[in-house]
Amino acid sequence: MAKKTKFKGPVAEKKRKDPAAEGIKAFLNSEQMYKLSRVVLQSRYVVEGNLSGAHRSPLKGASSEFAEHKAYGIGDDPKHIDWKVFGRTDRYYVKRYEDETNLRVYIILDRSGSMAYGSGDVRKFDFACQLAAAMGYVVVKANDSVGMFVFSDKIDMKVEPRNSLNHLHNMLKRLQDVKAESPTNTAKVLHQIAESIHKRALVILISDLLDDEKEVVHSIAHFRKQKHDVIVLHVLDPVEIDLSLKQGFEFEDMETGEKMTVDPRGVAKDYQKEFGAFLEHYRVSCQGMKVDYRLVKTDQQVDTYARAYLEERRRLR
Fold first, then answer.
1. Same domain, 164 and 248
2. What is the radius of gyration, based on Cα positions, of the chain?
3. Taking residues 184-200, what's their average pLDDT?
4. What is the pTM of this model?
5. Fewer Cβ neighbours under 10 Å: the N or C end of the chain?
6. CATH code of residue 141
């Protein structure tokens, strides 16, 4: 279903909690940071990073966990020869070990016009920014690396991964200046981002995914083809899901400006059926690709959701 057919009601510009706050504190308060410091984000697959850490790497090195034997060859260090194996086989083999690495995380954040919608106190984009901040905070507290892409119909912001709170703070300061106000081309941009990430990583896509779902799914598959671990956090306002409005409204497409007057009570049943099929397509497609898909509603607390999700992910690892 194309994005232009989706409900995007009017919205007033809403301010964040503390306009004077910068960086991390513009999105998370002290209590939220304390709660998030007690959880971790773990990759379910092999990753590549820069530092020694707690995630399995496809590279082999001198760590404590044995991986395999290989035939001794020119260039191999004789000190790694396994003499016990030599005694049994009369052949030289060297030990190889799994190299433990830090996790490299890329947060991909949608800033298209539809993300500016909010039926209550929180717009989707504000919620998505808080969610990105929460995930980023969890990552750097674990000494892992986090970077970010912000996109609309193009890549609008790119920050390479690093593993410090100062880096996260500066990245979120840049995010404070970003607004949700542009048209989108989700699939095209995701393909571009996938091509630009050369090492295996964990990719977190935060978006309302209001675009051609078949094309978007194909672009998500691009990340899996390159062996990235992928999380899709599908951020939606509750009203977008069930059209629970009690009177007629003039609906405006927040990207094209197209307007339509509709009585939601007369179309809610058909809308819910169509939107349900839209959501199910993403859920089933992501499940088939072993992508971790979650529908996230904006009427919940960001830190509460993030903690519950990360605990669940840890148990299912």
1. yes
2. 23
3. 96
4. 0.78
5. C
6. 3.40.50.410
